[in-house]
Design brief:
The protein is α/β, with parallel strands linked by helices. Helix content is 65%, strand content 10%. It has 2 domains: 157 residues; 156 residues, Alpha-Beta Plaits. The structure holds 3'-deoxy-guanosine-5'-triphosphate and magnesium ion (2 copies).
């Protein structure tokens, strides 16, 4: 998400800085200082985000809240209720909605509204009494922005929740697996063709995150997914189950075919280099045929084979039958 909003963030900050520069040409240099503060805060706020325990809170405190305070400062030094600057306090409301959904709006919008009150009514109540538009216009902007953006954000969140595509890798996700498997199982029952499932789990992936940061971990996941996709044919369906775990659905593939395909993926990953790093992956293969092919038992078989591959030293392919022998 942080990535998706990068351009919007840069354009917004540039626009606000240009606004401050134009205002400072006639109204004093303090606005420029405010803009410089905002840009610095947002730039620092983005540093090392990957390694923070609660990146969301950090973004809120270092980006949204700082921007709100800087805009309020700009409103104060440019004339409080006499200035148009309190109107700008609607911008962080949009930013908080885009970044945090409606949870963030509940905090971000009231903060902007309070700052509008503080920079108008709090500075010169007499002026506001004679010019109520100096308070109600920025307040209306903040309220209407929050009210209008809220259902849009909610629908975006719902849309993403319904999506069958994994955002990071572009692969199909777990939600897409079940309905597709049901179709394949139905066909297999009619034709008596085998169905294989391959589970893949990257080896020691946690240490990549720990040693090089979450951003590098994500790049590795993207490149590994792409390398696997390229090594497969179009009807061999690859899913990201979550984290560094993938599933491959192979309609019509018997044990040997599935193990061979898994081996080609293992080699494709082994040959890959991402940001100077090398990764390996372990695979578990299970095959079923006949009338009653169940996703759960097939995935369960592939999972115990995968466990055997991990126990056997990783960077290898194990079959469910082999796994049973290995686990016995
Ligand atoms: P093993 O060889 O036994 O599989 O060891 P491992 O370190 O790969 O296994 P473990 O399951 O302990 O670690 C999985 C790690 O995957 C933990 C988590 O930090 C990381 N992870 C999960 N989802 C994501 C993601 O979307 N992006 C990144 N960068 N890391 C993720
Ligand atoms: Mg795992
Ligand atoms: Mg792993």
């Amino acid at each position: 998400m942080q990535e998706r909003l990068r351009t919007a963030r840069i354009v917004t900050l540039t626009t606000l800085s240009a606004t401050a520069a134009i205002v400072s040409a006639t109204g004093g240099w303090t606005m420029l200082v405010a803009a410089a503060l905002a840009v610095t805060a947002v730039a620092i706020g983005g540093v090392g985000l990957d390694r923070r325990r609660r990146p969301e809170l950090w973004v809120f405190a270092s980006t949204i809240l700082v921007l709100q305070l800087v805009l309020a400062f700009g409103a104060l030094v440019s004339g409080g209720p006499r200035s148009l600057a309190p109107n700008l306090l609607a911008i962080p409301v949009l930013m908080v909605a885009a970044r945090f959904s409606n949870r963030g709006l509940v905090v971000g919008a009231p903060v902007s509204a309070l700052l509008v009150l503080a920079t108008t009514l709090g500075v010169d109540p007499g002026y506001v009494a004679h010019h109520p538009e100096s308070l109600v216009v920025p307040l209306a902007l903040v309220v209407c922005t929050a009210v209008y953006v809220s259902p849009l954000v909610a629908s975006d969140v719902r849309h993403r929740a319904d999506s069958t595509l994994d955002q990071l890798t572009g692969l199909l996700n777990r939600r897409a697996l079940e309905p597709r498997f049901a179709e394949i199982a139905e066909q297999a029952a009619l034709t008596d063709h085998p169905v294989s499932v391959v589970l893949a789990d990257l080896d020691h992936f946690k240490s990549i995150n720990d040693d090089h940061g979450h951003g590098v971990g994500d790049a590795v996941l993207r490149d590994v997914a792409y390398a696997m996709r390229r090594a497969l044919r179009t009807f061999e369906l690859l899913y990201r189950l979550g984290g560094e775990e993938f599933a491959l659905l192979l309609p019509g593939a018997a044990e040997d075919d599935a193990a061979r395909i898994a081996e080609s993926l293992r080699v494709a990953i082994e040959d890959l280099e991402v940001a100077g790093l090398r990764v390996t992956c372990s695979f578990g293969v299970a095959t079923a045929r006949g009338e009653r092919i169940a996703l759960e038992s097939l995935v369960g078989g592939a999972d115990s084979a995968l466990y055997a591959a991990k126990r056997g030293g990783r960077n290898r392919v194990e079959r469910h039958d082999d796994a049973r022998v290995a686990l016995a």
